[in-house]
UniProtKB/TrEMBL annotation:
Pfam families: AA9. Transmembrane segments: none annotated. It is an enzyme of class 1 (oxidoreductase). This is lytic cellulose monooxygenase (C4-dehydrogenating). Residues 248-336 are annotated as: Disordered. GO terms for molecular function: metal ion binding; monooxygenase activity. It comes from Gnomoniopsis smithogilvyi. Residues 21-239 form the Auxiliary Activity family 9 catalytic domain. The lineage of its organism: Eukaryota, Fungi, Dikarya, Ascomycota, Pezizomycotina.
Length: 336
């Protein structure tokens, strides 16, 4: 009869293999590294009831490592499987950066990358006790596909040593936030239920912020299984792509082409990104957003909708950062 120790070792090996799909193992706020929630912490809680302090939310992604579209209306889509609040909080300045460090990401798992934030309310420890199902998510960074090259955002992530940098909008009010960083793998998106969501959450307080406290979208209303950016054929040459989820926050970064776009933030009870899309009219990888999503179109450079404002100095900074990131990715790829 196998010992309990050996059984746990086998279980750990299986979970480690499953985790190869990808997870955020750590992140840096303004250059300071913060440990994410890792597999060792899961087993520490199982064995001792506690685990080390980390701003990364507890989760149990020890099977296939992703959330399927069939769970889009369930709590697991918010911060991953059986996620629980983090036990500490990191800090970032408004206008600063958060670098997310993933484990090795498979090249075959093509897809977009998003980052959302949700304000937890008043109190320094608000995010340690907030009910995740009440959080309203605001998208501050999105990257999908470059239609010129048919290159997905995940290729840029891999070229940047499996890391992704997000600029925190300086207009966001200071306070306690949960950051939700996510890749949606689309290698199986040609059949319903084939997309794979990899959402991970971190408690990060924003300091030195502005006065904007936008409303957002509940996690269980971000996507539906039949959204055009969730259910489509990823193996044909795409001439346009509907970016899943709510509109990009004004002042957020559209890393698809390095431009900053703005649109109205959806309400907490609003629909997912499938309902409305804008038409892009410029560079092949341009995107423009409406109140619920955006379309990347090969027709030309993106033009803002009537509700959009002109680029602010902060938006220009976000755009420059995105361009640097994409240029660096291309340089790394060329060296290899």
């Amino acid at each position: 009869m196998p010992s309990l120790k050996n059984s746990l070792a086998v279980a750990g090996a299986f979970a480690a293999k499953a985790y190869a799909h990808g997870l955020v193992q750590g992140f840096a706020t303004d250059g300071t590294y913060n440990q994410g929630f890792i597999l060792d912490y899961y087993y520490a809680k199982i064995n001792t009831g506690t685990y080390p302090a980390t701003a990364g939310w507890y989760e149990e992604a020890t099977d296939n490592g992703y959330i399927a579209p069939s769970s889009y209306a369930e709590a697991d889509i918010i911060c991953h499987k059986n996620a629980e609040n983090a036990n500490t909080t990191a800090t970032v300045t408004a206008g600063g950066t958060v670098d997310f460090y993933w484990t090795t990401w498979p090249e075959s798992h093509i897809g977009p990358i998003f980052t959302y934030v949700a304000n937890c309310g008043t109190g320094a420890d608000a995010c340690s006790t907030v009910d995740k199902t009440t959080l309203e998510w605001v998208k501050i960074d999105e990257a999908a596909i470059d239609l010129d090259t048919q290159t997905w955002a995940t290729a840029d992530l891999i070229a940047n040593n499996n890391s992704w940098t997000v600029t925190v909008p300086s207009t966001l009010a200071s306070g306690s936030y949960v950051f939700r960083h996510e890749i949606i793998a689309m290698h199986g998106a040609n059949s319903e239920g084939g997309a794979q969501n990899y959402p991970f959450c971190m408690n990060i307080a924003i300091t030195g912020g502005g006065s904007d406290s936008p409303s957002g979208t509940l996690g269980t209303a971000l996507y539906t299984p039949t959204d055009p950016g969730i259910l489509f054929n990823p193996y044909t040459t795409l001439t346009e792509y509907t970016i899943p989820g709510p509109a990009l926050y004004s002042g957020g970064t559209d890393s698809t082409d390095g431009s900053s776009t703005s649109g109205s933030s959806p309400s907490a009870t609003g629909s997912s990104g499938s309902s409305a899309s804008a038409t892009a009219t410029g560079s092949a990888s341009g995107a423009t957003s409406t109140g619920s999503g955006a379309v990347v179109s090969a027709a030309g450079s993106s033009s803002a909708s009537s509700s959009s404002s002109s680029s602010s100095s902060e938006g220009d900074g976000c755009a420059a950062a995105a361009r640097r990131r994409r240029r660096h990715a291309r340089e790394l790829k060329a060296r290899n």
